[in-house]
Design brief:
Elements: H1 2-21, H2 28-43, E1 50-51, H3 104-137, E2 139-140, E3 150-152, E4 160-162, E5 168-171, H4 173-177, H5 179-195, H6 197-210, H7 215-240, H8 245-255, E6 257-258, E7 273-274, H9 276-288, H10 294-311, E8 314-315, H11 322-332, E9 334-335, E10 339-343, E11 355-364, E12 367-374, E13 388-392, E14 399-407, E15 413-419, E16 429-436, E17 439-447, H12 450-463, E18 469-470, E19 480-486, E20 492-500, E21 503-508, E22 513-516, H13 519-536, H14 554-566, E23 575-588, E24 591-606, E25 609-626, E26 632-638, H15 646-653, H16 659-663, H17 666-684, H18 688-700, H19 709-715, H20 717-725, H21 728-739, H22 746-759, H23 771-788, H24 791-797, H25 799-810
Parallel strand pairs: 1-8, 3-5, 6-7
Antiparallel strand pairs: 2-3, 4-5, 9-10, 10-13, 11-12, 11-14, 14-15, 16-17, 16-19, 18-22, 19-20, 20-21, 21-22, 23-24, 24-25, 25-26
Helix pairs in contact: 1-2, 1-7, 1-10, 2-7, 3-6, 5-7, 5-8, 6-7, 7-9, 8-9, 12-13, 18-20, 18-22, 21-22, 21-25, 24-25
């Protein structure tokens, strides 16, 4: 809808400009015909196709494409956010629950609907009264050989054409008195009929009902109605001859009723009601005999052609490479307790090439089962670009992944895997920042649970208030709380809560208006902000400061920012960890921006092991300001937008030399996940040998009829991936098993496969024989390489192989 609003408004503005610039230089009929394009665009709520000419290409991706909203949907999927939590706010000991409130988007729709109903009833009522009046007072007028029925009524202000199915011409008694004047009026109204103006007046009313809030549409209705009269005047003069031009003009002056307001716009009739300016314009056209200038006409036609190309089309979808398409699909994927959902990106030219697999793991009463939820479903090649697909979930999964495949260059298959348990539901996220004279004192992002509910209630309380006053300069406030609502499309709206003359108020944006808000809600917000400050140990001018962080260590500050920005966003975990890879660091004065690929993971512990409970993996830009003490104060934590805006937002934010690296999350995921797993193991002191042994047993459990180890790995992708995530722990376990000298069965093949993947470039063995024989050969090569160099050389150049050598030296296996 927003696309129709923007393009139709641009088209109206262009037609108005052309009308003004070329008035008297082009045919009045051409001038009137231009409004037909406007009418068509207003009644067509979608673009014909994507085009590089479209004005929508000039609209930035960050522009909000919907009204202020508290919860949203995307791509036609129902609201997947779990909004059933009406629990008591923190600190509310009375047990009072907040009632479910309407979203801002719903409020705007309700306002539009009420306005449309009011305007619609206004127009219908006006025409019904007009219809009843005509039928009560009309009498037939004998107009020989006239195509339409003609009536005389003493209760109309001017002659008109009225009616849809059976239209008729209505004359005033004055017009009927003089036969010559009547003939001119009838010719004029017949011209209206031939132009279809009785139909256009109805459609004009429909547009006013749908776009009642848009002043440009009202302007278009008024001007198009005036141009319809000019076009008819021009046609009538052409029909009756130049010698009768002045006589027609005199008759016209006698028939027109002068009114200041354009009240005739509401009638589905071609009434001759006009203001003084309109009458003057019509008389000038009749008396001065304006001539059409061919160059002016050609210019107008060319301008209109370009404008049609720019307003009847939508923004051209960018062509995506396979790698970019995989990235966008991964960014669109999410899960809730009820479903898994993903969207096929637009712009990839071969949608039939998509292959998407979804797998999960269920655990119940100590029993673990791998489940394939979606696999090889694209045999019919039916994936539709831009369409969102959902898969219902009926169980609680401890692991859930989506893997997408596309053909790359040179026949190589590209793949992208998403841990769906690390993706948040589609809902609005909120952050809270405490400000003092415009400077950040403390921050919490995102808010969750009761905190998010408090933010939603405050914003709703502000939006339903009708009274508003000009806002204040935020930088002058000693106490101010910024609530930022960030939507799934990446857009955000800021709301500032503060005390004004001792009363609680909220202001939208730094230059917006403020309204009163509930004092109790404001006090809860202030208490929440004070609690953040106390918990974070923040200092003057810093954000998300943690007392145990060395803030002169840039890397430590980046780690702290990642942890702080993600805490509580996903599932509730017992422990959180992060790993990041710095792509580039840019310094400018005392400002430093670190561009990094950041992985945040939360873990829950149970039954001697742990599982992932939430997290995120994405490129981030973390900006710090270095103070006089050499400490880094966080100023901005930037994350890419969701869905189709993901890749463009990264391209806009990141330096061009690292943009492609920032899109390639798979390049970093394994090493970063291994780092987070290592932190989780260290924190919980998990017996990794027992966990790894169980994983291998599960992989070896099925399919029983298979002889190829690859079939077992393919049957249990989640367990095998977990072996890789344990990283060096898996290597130590595999080394110890092989050093026992008995790994000649399926277990050995599974361990060898994982070991060789983890070794990567250190895989210096030959592809020979059974697993145990391969390991023994590789071990001998490693010993020979160390003997030819040194242990220091191995630790530096072959760190994973050095683990084996250390085990051999210490006889640990």
């Amino acid at each position: 809808m927003i696309e129709c609003i923007i393009t139709s408004s641009v088209l109206i503005a262009v037609v108005i400009a052309l009308r003004f610039l070329f008035r008297g230089k082009i045919s009045c009929r051409l001038q009137y015909a231009l409004w037909g394009l406007v009418l068509l665009r207003l009644l067509m709520p979608f673009p014909l196709l994507g085009s590089p000419l479209s004005v929508m290409n000039a609209i930035p991706d960050s522009m909000p494409i919907s009204g202020q909203h508290i919860s949203v949907t995307s791509g036609g999927i129902g609201d997947t956010a779990d909004n059933s939590d009406n629990s008591v706010l923190a600190g509310n000991a009375t047990g009072v629950h907040y009632a479910k409130t309407m979203s801002a988007n719903e409020i705007l729709r309700l306002i539009w609907l009420v306005g449309a109903i009011v305007v619609g009833l206004w127009i219908l009522g006006t025409n019904f009264v007009f219809y009843r009046l005509l039928h009560k007072t009309r009498r037939t007028y004998d107009a020989a050989d006239f195509k339409l029925p003609v009536y005389v009524s003493g209760h109309i202000a001017s002659p008109c054409l009225f009616g849809i199915i059976h239209p008729g011409v209505y004359l005033t008694p004055k017009a009927a008195e003089d036969e010559n004047n009547a003939s001119y009026v009838l010719a004029h109204e017949l011209c209206h009929y031939r132009h279809g103006d009785h139909i256009w007046s109805i459609l004009r009313g429909v547009c006013l009902v749908a776009y009642w809030w848009n002043p440009l549409v009202w302007a278009a209705a008024i001007l198009s109605r005036a141009d319809s009269e000019l076009a008819c005047d021009e046609s009538v003069i052409k029909q009756i001859g130049e010698e009768k031009r002045l006589a027609y003009g005199h008759a016209l002056v006698d028939m027109i009723t002068v009114k200041k307001a354009p009240s005739g716009i509401l009638y589905a009739a071609t009434t001759m009601i006009s203001g003084k300016r309109g009458i003057k314009e019509r008389l000038n056209m009749i008396i001065k005999k304006p001539k059409t200038f061919i160059p002016a006409m050609v210019t107008v036609l060319l301008a209109v052609a370009v404008c049609v190309g720019g307003t009847f089309t939508g923004a051209k979808a960018a062509s995506l490479s396979a790698e970019e398409a995989l990235t966008q699909l991964a960014a669109s994927a999410y899960h809730t307790k009820d479903e898994v959902s993903f969207q096929i990106p637009q712009g990839y030219e071969k949608p039939e090439k998509w292959n998407i697999h979804i797998a999960g793991r269920l655990e119940s009463d100590g029993f673990s089962q791998s489940v394939h939820l979606l696999e090889d479903v694209n045999d019919s090649k039916t994936w539709k670009p831009g369409e969102r697909y959902s898969l219902p979930l009926n169980d609680h999964y401890t692991e859930l992944t989506l893997t997408a495949y596309l053909p790359g260059e040179n026949g190589k298959t590209l793949e992208k895997t998403v841990n769906l348990l690390n993706t948040p539901s589609f809902s609005v996220s909120y952050s809270l920042t405490q400000l003092k004279n415009g400077k950040v004192q403390s921050s919490l992002s995102p808010l969750s649970g009761d905190k998010a509910k408090l933010a939603e209630d405050l914003i709703f309380d502000y939006m339903v208030k009708s009274a508003a006053w000009p806002g204040v300069d935020i930088k002058t406030l000693n106490e101010c709380y910024l609530l930022r609502a960030t939507y799934p499309d990446g857009t955000a709206t800021d709301y500032y809560a503060y005390l004004h003359d001792g009363k609680s108020v909220m202001q939208q944006g730094t230059d917006g208006y403020y309204s009163r808000i509930d004092d109790g809600l404001y006090e809860k917000l202030a208490d929440l902000a004070q609690g953040i400050t106390a918990a974070a140990g923040s200092v003057e001018g810093s954000t998300n400061t943690t007392v145990n962080i060395d803030r002169s260590d840039l890397n430590a500050c980046v780690s702290d920012a990642i942890i702080t920005a993600n805490t509580d966003q996903y599932h509730s975990g017992d422990f959180s960890a992060e790993a990041h890879t710095v792509l580039k660091t840019v310094e400018s004065g005392n400002t430093t921006t670190v561009y990094a690929m950041a992985l945040y993971m939360e873990f829950g512990y149970a039954n001697g092991g742990f599982s992932e409970t939430g997290g995120s993996h994405m490129p981030v830009a973390v900006t710090f300001e270095k103070n006089d003490a050499g400490k880094y104060d966080l100023k901005e934590y930037w994350m890419p937008k969701d869905g189709t805006y993901y890749a463009p937002s990264i391209k806009e934010k990141f330096p061009s030399d690292i943009y492609k690296n920032a899109l390639d999350t798979q390049k970093y995921i394994l090493a970063q996940t291994q780092a987070c797993y290592a932190q989780a193991v260290k924190y919980s002191k998990v017996n990794t040998d027992a966990v790894l042994s169980k994983l291998v047993d599960t992989i070896c459990s099925s399919p029983a009829e298979a002889s190829n180890p690859g079939a077992y790995i393919e049957e249990h992708p989640i367990e095998y991936r977990a072996l890789l995530y344990y990283g060096d722990y898996t290597l130590r376990y595999a080394y110890a098993e092989f050093l026992k000298g008995v790994q000649t069965d399926l277990r050995g093949q599974i361990l060898l496969s994982a070991m060789r993947e983890l070794l990567g470039e250190e895989n210096i063995g030959k592809d020979i024989g059974p697993a145990q024989k391969w390991f023994d050969e590789w071990k001998d090569n490693a010993l020979s390489l160390r003997d030819a160099n040194s242990m220091e050389f191995m630790e530096k150049n072959y760190p994973k192989t050095a683990i084996l050598l250390q085990m051999l030296d210490k006889n640990i296996y």
